[in-house]
Amino acid sequence: MAKLAPLIAPSILSADLARLGEEVENVLAAGADIVHFDVMDNHYVPNLTFGPTICEALRKYGVTAPIDVHLMVEPVDELAAMFAKAGATYITFHPEATRHVDRSLQAIKAAGCKAGLVFNPATPLDVLKYVMDKVDMVLLMSVNPGFGGQSFIPAALTKLAEARALIDAYVAEHPGREIRLEIDGGVKTDNIAAIAAAGADTFVAGSAIFGAKDYAATISAMKAAIAAA
Ligand SMILES: O=C(CO)[C@@H](O)[C@H](O)COP(=O)(O)O
Ligand SMILES: [Fe+2]
């Protein structure tokens, strides 16, 4: 099954937040495709990051690239609606953080955004098959959510293959449907080929990109490794 064109999604969690607009501009100019925006509420995860006003500020600053909002919040619906108004393109959430997964997906799509589910390393993909018609993105965590800079959990490779098979089977029966398979956590230039080979088409990388001196060289190396996988 042909995969979608690969997308590199730098996580702004690892950016210099005092210069966020400039950092996002630089990373997009360096070849990034989509901006990964980690929202943490000090409740669903121990860390606390940024809300919809920062997303809106990036839009006002002139960012036109897709913004991929990864909600690590509980509950989901109120913040999802705020992010839809703030200019999010994708809004993904963790199924265990909402009481009604199908309703939350419907609400995100009704608000004009693409919707997705996020699965923690030890969370099974079970719910996915019941909501495939409402999902535009499946995001697999390859670290436990809450922090940048953690190491990739290798079991995510097996899970990627499992998710890839589910997506391909669904898309084969629903021509024209596009469902992205995103990986998030510990993605580096030296493991991205194996991750691509396992089935991912959208690659979040925070510390590997923003921690590098040369964003363009790092993103090019990642794209080359994916192309060769
Ligand atoms: O959602 C998260 C962490 O919870 C991620 O998006 C991280 O921000 C990725 O950072 P690196 O592992 O690439 O440094
Ligand atoms: Fe994330």
TrEMBL record:
Cofactor requirement: Fe(2+); Co(2+); Zn(2+); Mn(2+)
The name this protein goes by in its record: Ribulose-phosphate 3-epimerase
InterPro entries in UniProt: Aldolase_TIM (IPR013785), Ribul_P_3_epim (IPR026019), Ribul_P_3_epim-like (IPR000056), RibuloseP-bd_barrel (IPR011060)
Binding site for substrate: S11, H70, G146, F147, G148, G149, D184, G185, G186, G206, S207
Family of the protein in this entry: Belongs to the ribulose-phosphate 3-epimerase family.
Its job: Catalyzes the reversible epimerization of D-ribulose 5-phosphate to D-xylulose 5-phosphate.
Annotated metabolic or biological route of this protein: Carbohydrate degradation
Enzyme class: isomerase
Lineage: Bacteria, Pseudomonadati, Pseudomonadota, Gammaproteobacteria, Nevskiales
Protein species of origin: Solimonas marina
CDD domains referenced in this protein's UniProt entry, alphabetically: RPE (cd00429)
Keyword check for Ribosomal protein: no
GO MF assignments: D-ribulose-phosphate 3-epimerase activity; metal ion binding
Keywords: Carbohydrate metabolism, Cobalt, Isomerase, Manganese, Metal-binding, Zinc
Binding-site list for a divalent metal cation: H36, D38, H70, D184
Enzyme active site: D38 (proton acceptor), D184 (proton donor)
One GO CC term on file: cytoplasm
One matching Pfam family: Ribul_P_3_epim
Gene for this chain: rpe
Cofactor comment text: Binds 1 divalent metal cation per subunit.
Enzyme Commission code: 5.1.3.1
